[in-house]
From TrEMBL:
Similarity-based family: Belongs to the Rho GDI family.
Keywords (A to Z) from UniProt: Cytoplasm
One Gene Ontology biological process: Rho protein signal transduction
Source organism superkingdom: Eukaryota
Protein name listed in UniProt: Rho GDP-dissociation inhibitor
Entry-linked Pfam families: Rho_GDI (PF02115)
Species: Sparassis crispa
Summary of the function given for this chain in its UniProt record: Regulates the GDP/GTP exchange reaction of the Rho proteins by inhibiting the dissociation of GDP from them, and the subsequent binding of GTP to them.
Chain spans, region Disordered: 1-26
């Protein structure tokens, strides 16, 4: 691995808290039985979809499947959506090759949909590193939160904090290269892809 590649890996590594060690992963059934008499814990487990006695899917494959990434903004024209299907190699190839246009100087946010396949997730985060002409210009790191598998197997949607796109003639010249990753505290990578965008006067 070259020094540049190592630096990029360091950029995409989740922020760690000194002295923090992730606890061993538990299955949904193990969480359901844990401190069953604790009422507040029971409410928290119910919010994660953990029901005592409910059968859970076998713990095989990735804990998380990332489905889509969307750029959402109240300034988008009616009916327009900017969505990448993370499960589609063709979609990802297109997003990497053809820059998405983001309107300059507007508020927008990243929104992802994902499924939790088994176990309870915590410490999973979305990391996005933006480069221009090879130089890092921005980094976004956002926690997904704690979730358990939904009984019906449906997906969760997470809206991250809004940010404002740059503006001005200089910002509009050239394109921006983005590397996105969904990773947990143990360093397990659930999705890793590249895409690009440019700034324009309109979406």
């Amino acid at each position: 691995m070259s020094a540049a590649e190592q630096h990029e890996e360091d950029d995409l590594a989740p922020t760690t808290t000194p002295g923090y060690k992730p606890t061993a992963a538990k299955s949904v059934d193990e969480y359901a039985k844990l401190d069953a008499e604790d009422e507040s814990l029971a409410r928290w487990k119910a919010s994660l979809g953990i029901v005592p006695g409910a059968s859970s899917a076998p713990a095989t494959g990735p804990k998380v499947t990332v489905l889509t990434l969307e750029l959402a903004s109240p300034t988008l024209p009616p009916g327009k959506k900017i969505t990448m299907n993370i499960q589609s190699p063709a979609d990802l190839a297109n997003a990497s090759k053809n820059s998405i246009t983001i309107k300059e100087g507007v508020e927008y946010n990243v929104r992802i949909t994902f499924k939790v396949n088994h176990s309870i997730i915590s410490g999973v985060r979305y990391i996005q590193v933006v480069k221009r002409a090879g130089m890092k210009v921005d980094k976004l790191e956002q926690m997904l939160g704690s979730y358990g598998p939904k009984p019906d197997g449906s997906a969760y949607t997470k809206n991250f904090d809004p940010e404002e796109s740059p503006s001005g003639m200089l910002a509009r010249s050239g394109s921006y290269h983005v590397r996105s990753r969904v990773v947990d505290d143990d360093g397990e990578v659930f999705a890793d892809w590249e895409w690009s965008f440019k700034l324009g006067k309109e979406w």
